[in-house]
C-alpha cells in the first residue's frame, strides 16, 4: 500500500436549520492511502454522507481541514474546488442521477465536456469506460430504457471517465436488489484492483462494506471502530445465517 | 486506461449544443405550448406594429408645415378664377407656388382610370412631397415634350405601358375634351402611384380651360409664417365672388392625426400589456422546468459545471424558444399579409391590404421573442444559484 494521500484533521460540521443546530461531524481524524478501498458504515444520520461530501469538496467544514494530494480542499473557493473536483473526483450516487434526456453515451461524456479535449479523444475515452462496465451494447439507450443495474453501471462509467484519483460512492447499491448489488460491487472491486483507484464507499449494507480493504464505522458524528479486512468473512456468515 | 492530457478549460462551444437541444426537447408539450404562446403574441405584436408604423409614416410625410393649400371655400372639388393666382403668389412670405388642374380620365373601355394633374413643371419636384428625388432629366424632358406625362408606377403596371409610348384618354371630368399624351417617365415607387402629371400649358390650350384653377399650393419658410400667409390670403379674397380657404397641409392632417394617435396609443398600450403577460407566462414555465431539474442541476455542479454555466443554460433555453417563436410568428404575419394582398389566400381581408408587414419586422419579431425569453428567464435562472450540491444526496439514507 502506498503513502496516505487523503488527510482529514479534526473535522467538524454543524448544520443550522432555522434556530436548530445539528452537529453532524464532531471531530473526525481519518486517512486514506492512494489506491485504498475504504467503506464507511453507520446508522442513518450518523454523518456518513456529510463526511463524504467534505472529502469530495462538495461542502465546507465548520472547522478542521481536508488535504488531498497535498492540496487543502477545505480552503478552496467554490469555483476552484469545482474545477479540482471535476478533475480528481468521480461520484457514484444511490439513485444513479443520470440526465434523463441524454443517452448512456452522452451521460458518460458529460464530465469530459469541461475538458479541453477533441471530440475523438472524448469518444475514445467514453467507449473505453463503457466497455469496462460491459455496456458497449447500450450506448444509445436513455436512462429510462435501462435497468437499475445498468443505470448504475453508466453512473460508474461516468465517475471513471475523467480518470479521477478518488471515487466516492454514497450508497451505490441502496436501491438495487441483492443480485444486482453483487454485480455492482464486483464491478467496483474490479475497478479498484485493475485501475488502482482510491475508493470511499458509504453504505449501511455489511455485505457491501465487506468488499472494502478497510471498514470504518461511524456513530453520531464520530468514528467509532476501525474494522480490519479479516473480519469480513464473519460478517458474511452472519448475514447468511 | 489511457487518459488524454486533460487540460481544464471551460469554453462555451458547440460541444454543449447537444445538451442544450436535448433539454429543449425534454418536455415537448410544454416547449411547444410556450413557443405557440410566443408565436401568437408576436403575430399580434407584428400586426399592431405594422399599423402603427404605417400610420406614423403617413403623418410624417404629410406633416411638413411649410406647405399651404389654397382652395375655394365651398365648392367640391374646389375651383376658382386663375386670375387670383398672381395676387396669392405675391402675398409676402410666399417663397414658391404652383397650381393644380384636375383632369380625371379613363385609359380604356375596361374602366381603368387615373387622376391627372396639370401643373407647373419647372418646380414640380420642389412643390410635391415625395417627388424631391425625381430625376431632373425627366423635368427637362417634360419641358421639351408638350404632350409629355410623368406616370404613377401603379398606372404603368396596370396598363402595361412603356416609357415613350403614346396614348389617348377619355376624360370624365372634361367630357369630350380628350387629350393625347406621350409617356416621358415614371414617378418613384410609392408617391403618387395612381396619378399622372402633365403640363399646365398643354391642359389649358388642349382642354380650352383658360379661366379656372382647382388648387394653389404655396411654400413658406415655417409654421408661423404659414399661419399668417393663410390669414392674409383668406382676408384678401373676403369680398370677392369666390371666397378662398387656405390651410397648412398639416392642419387638416393633424385633426385626423390627433384622433388616430389616441387609437395608436391604445394599441401600443394593449401590446405592452400582452408583452408583460407573455414574460409572466414564460417565467412560470421556466420556473417549473427549473424546479423539476433541481437535482440534475445539483449533479451538474457536482460534476464541476460552474453555476454560471447553469444560469446561461436556463436563459439560453428560454431565449431560444422565445426567438424561435418570435421568428416564426413574425414570419407568419409577413407571409399572411403578402399572400392576402396578392390574392393567394382562399379569402381576402381587405383592411390588411393597406398594412403590408415590412420584411424588417421579421427581424423585430425575432428580437422581441428573444427579449421576452430573456426577461422571463432571468429570475428563475438566478434561482438556480441557490441549488446546493447536497440536493443530489437529499434522498440518500
Ligand atoms: N443540508 C443539511 N442541513 C441540515 N442538516 C443536515 C443536512 N445534511 C445532513 N444533515 C443532518 O446531519 C446529520 C448527518 O446526516 P448525513 O451525513 O446525511 O447522515 P448519513 O449519511 O449517515 O445518513 C443528520 O442529522 C442530518 O439530518
Ligand atoms: Mg447518507
Q: Can you walk me through this structure?
A:
- The complex is a heterodimer of chains A (241) and B (397).
- Chain A is of the alpha/beta class and 241 residues long.
- Chain A has one domain (33-59, 77-228): 3-Layer(aba) Sandwich (Rossmann fold), CATH 3.40.50.300.
- Chain A has helices at residues 48-55, 78-88, 104-109, 119-132, 148-160, 178-195, 206-209, 232-240, and strands spanning 4-17, 20-33, 37-41, 63-68, 71-72, 89-92, 166-170, 198-202, 214-219, 222-228.
- A six-stranded mixed β-sheet of chain A has the order 6-7-8-3-9-10.
- In chain A, strand 4 (63-68) and strand 5 form a beta hairpin.
- Chain B is an alpha+beta fold and 397 residues long.
- Chain B has two domains: 11-59 and 260-396, no CATH class; 64-256, no CATH class.
- In chain B, 52% of the residues lie in helices and 15% in strands.
- In chain B, strands 1, 3, 4, 5, 6, 7, 8, 9, 11 and 12 form a ten-stranded mixed β-sheet that branches. In chain B, strands 2-10 form a two-stranded antiparallel ribbon.
- In chain B, a hairpin with a 6-residue loop joins strand 3 and strand 4 (113-119).
- In chain B, helix 1 crosses helix 11 (307-341) and helix 2 (28-61) packs antiparallel against helix 9.
- Chain B is elongated and about 100 Å long.
- Residues 1-12 of chain B have low confidence and may be disordered.
- The A-B interface holds A 44, 49, 53, 58-59, 78-79, 82-83, 85-87, 91, 93-95, 97, 99-102, 106, 110-111, 113-117, 119, 121-122, 124-125, 128-129, 132, 158, 160, 162-163, 170-171, 174, 195, 204 and B 1-4, 6-11, 15-16, 18-19, 22-23, 25-26, 295-296, 299-307, 389-390, 392-393, 395-397.
- The complex binds adenosine-5'-diphosphate and magnesium ion.
